[in-house]
């Protein structure tokens, strides 16, 4: 799998709303930076994802304008615009923001997400 396909697989896994699927694509030392919180352990990342899925029902997550800004045989980094939509307390809601992902190859040669940084759109 290429790093580009790893990003596609990660988005697809996110949209399953099953963290066990997301976790398969994460490096064990993954670090997430969100606007409101940093997550530095697998347990913190799981909790953040699951809380979001409980808050925004039927969330659909996507990325666009992906630019791969660094590529090597062992790592790759991209920036993009993320979009989400779903239902909060029965009302349709949506939003977008900026994202950065860093992928690295693990010991088995598989691309894993080691860092994600998401921030809301600047108005």
Task: Describe what you observe in this structure.
With 123 residues, the chain is of the alpha+beta class. It is 25% helix and 52% strand. It has three helices and six strands, in the order ααββαββββ. The protein has helices spanning 3-14, 19-23, 42-55; strands at residues 26-33, 38-39, 57-71, 75-88, 91-105, 111-120. A six-stranded mixed sheet has the order 2-1-6-5-4-3. Strand 1 (26-33) and strand 2 form a beta hairpin. The longest helix has 14 residues, at 42-55. The chain is globular, with a radius of gyration of 14 Å. The termini are far apart.
Q: Which keywords apply here?
A:
globular, alpha+beta, single chain, 6 strands, 25% helix, 123 residues
């Amino acid at each position: 799998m290429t790093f580009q396909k790893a990003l596609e697989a990660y988005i697809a896994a996110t949209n399953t709303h099953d963290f066990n699927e997301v976790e398969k694509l994460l490096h064990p030392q993954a670090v997430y930076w969100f606007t409101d919180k940093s997550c530095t352990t697998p347990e913190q990342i799981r909790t953040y994802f699951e809380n979001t899925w409980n808050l925004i029902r039927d969330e659909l997550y996507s990325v666009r304008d992906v630019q791969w800004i660094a590529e090597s045989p062992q790592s790759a980094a991209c920036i993009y615009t993320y979009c989400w939509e779903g239902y909060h307390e029965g009302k349709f809601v949506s939003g977008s923001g900026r994202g950065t992902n860093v992928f690295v190859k693990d010991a088995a040669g598989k691309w894993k997400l080691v860092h994600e940084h998401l921030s809301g759109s600047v108005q």
